Amino acid sequence: MQPTDSNINHKTQSSPYSHTGSKDLAFIITVDTEGDNLWQYKPGDAITTRNTAFIPRFQQLCDRFGFKPVYLTNYEMALDDSFVESAKEWLSQDRCEIGVHLHAWNNPPLHPLTGPHSGQSYLIEYPEEVMRQKFDTIYSLLQERFGITPTSHRAGRWAMNDTYFKILKEFGITVDCSHTPGISWSRSYGITCGGSDYSNISPHVGLINGVLEVPMTVRHTHCHPTGSLKHRLKSLIGGTTVWLRPATESSESMIWLADKVHKEADCNYLEFMIHSSELMPGGSPYVTDNKALEEFYAKMEALFTHVNNLGYRGQTLNDYQKTAIKSLHER
Questions:
Q1: Domain-by-domain residue ranges, the chain?
Q2: Mind listing the pLDDT tens digit for each residue in 46-68?
Q3: Which pTM does this prediction carry?
Q4: What are phi and psi of 138, to 5 degrees?
């Protein structure tokens, strides 16, 4: 099934925020909480969740700064007893949030798709009723396992369309963080099509079908702050994107981006992301061994220190949407 609206276009209300006067600055940490090294997954492979043993160290890092990570949790991690036990303790102490993360290709009910590609399927490729059934599975599982009613969400592989937003609204999801402004996933294939094209999406918050969209902190630049001379010349000519993601960015790049967004008059948040599997040596293509893991933590600590010094304070997606929705409605 080829989705007709994977290239999302929507009109969002302008941001209500301004640097003039007092302004709460939110640092939102999002963790795609999922199985080990899914980049290398092939149909039929067993999906392991060994990375769950490495998450407490990250939680402790966040605790040191008073930041509250949002663990956007998918099917296999919701079934992992060790993660559930730890996260329930953190939830009881208001140290984190649990949200929905859905990988359609292994989230029941399984439904066959045929098409020209052999990638991991997007939820938006399925008929609407199958989309709804798959969402109900993970939503209900999170309710059962964590004793909470999820209100936050990020799509697997970043893919959203109007039907998906409608389903989020039906289930009472109030905030989504799937948009990556300036980035097209159209060449990242599922089974029948490529992913969503966010090339022209606003980098600021807005309402879509009653759901608050809080896009990833991503900005396009023609003057990349770090890297080799060749890399900087390439960005000068063709431009490049920088985002708050330590797997793909240096600490210098992320700090540069934080400073750039901090100067924007109409944005009061920074949104950071990792995958839980990046917290484990060998759990991703980005963190292959213990040395790489220590470098990964050094980058995160440098960024966390910097945004804390800028005055940003930790908020979950649910915390943030409460004040953002109020501000949008007051305009």
A1: 26-330
A2: 999 999 999 999 999 999 999 99
A3: 0.91
A4: -75, -35
